[in-house]
Amino acid sequence: MEQIGSWNEFLECRARLLGHLADVAKKCWHSEYIIGSYCEKYGDTYCMAGGPKSKVFGLKDKRLFYGAVRKVPKETILHLYMAAAKYLPGEVGRYASELGFKDYKSTRVPYRWHRYDALAFCCYEDNHVEFDFLYLLLGNEKRIYSTIIHELCHTVHPNHKLEFWELLERKLKEAALVEQDYDGWEMHISKWNPQLVVKGKGYRLPREWVPCGCMACEPVEVYRSQYWYEFNEKVGPTLRKIIRKKLKECHEEGLTKEYAQLYGVDYMSIF
């Protein structure tokens, strides 16, 4: 893979990788596993909440998928990581400028991630934002942009009280990520108590945004057939382990420092 020259090129390269993995995943697709009929009978909510499930995936299917992931060159993963570390700060800065987040300071994509499986993190003391590379690599694109705005909103409200979620909704609309008439509040949440702490369960993003951490799948109806959701749940943890292992190998071989110089990334800032 050649050097990635911009954030848009990063998205394009990421899309090609995910498209390849999705094609391999479709080879593991067995029509008898799909429970679309259950979704039609009981509704999507019932199926996603623990209703009838499809059969357990066979070991052969998993090995086929993991084999394809292991064949991805580690240099490809390193190019994608360095591109994310290089160009994401500019993307976050653009949103901060356009949406009026004056207290935002900086962004980084650390090599090691120890934020208790969080997708991103905002340090309330200095308004510094960090992102998990695997989320940038595997997450839904609109969800990533909403997470950028989510963390920027924390530079104003360092909590998850209702005033934070109301600000997030306004900024999502300003960024045209949701429609102007979109109302993300669940019926049981009162919007008139600004002291109420909402951990995200009371506010929902559009259903068509694939939950974070999963490979994007088009069309959305295929994802919601439940098979794809379960497949991601089954292979996701190992998929991440393989990618982290590839980055570790690059670091042990001295490639990380070499690529950091190639991309103009401050090597010490990512460690």
Please supply descriptive tags for the structure shown above.
single chain; three-stranded mixed beta sheet; 271 residues; mainly alpha; 3 strands
Task: Report the end-to-end length measured between terminal Cα atoms.
Answer: 24 Å
User: How is the biggest beta sheet arranged?
Assistant: 3 strands, mixed
Estimated radius of gyration: 20 Å
Helix-strand makeup class = mainly alpha
Structural overview:
The protein has 11 helices and 3 strands, in the order H-H-H-H-H-E-E-E-H-H-H-H-H-H. The chain has 271 residues and is mainly α. It has one domain. Strand 2 (120-123) and strand 3 (128-131) form a beta hairpin. The longest helix is centred in the first third of the chain and has 26 residues, at 74-99.
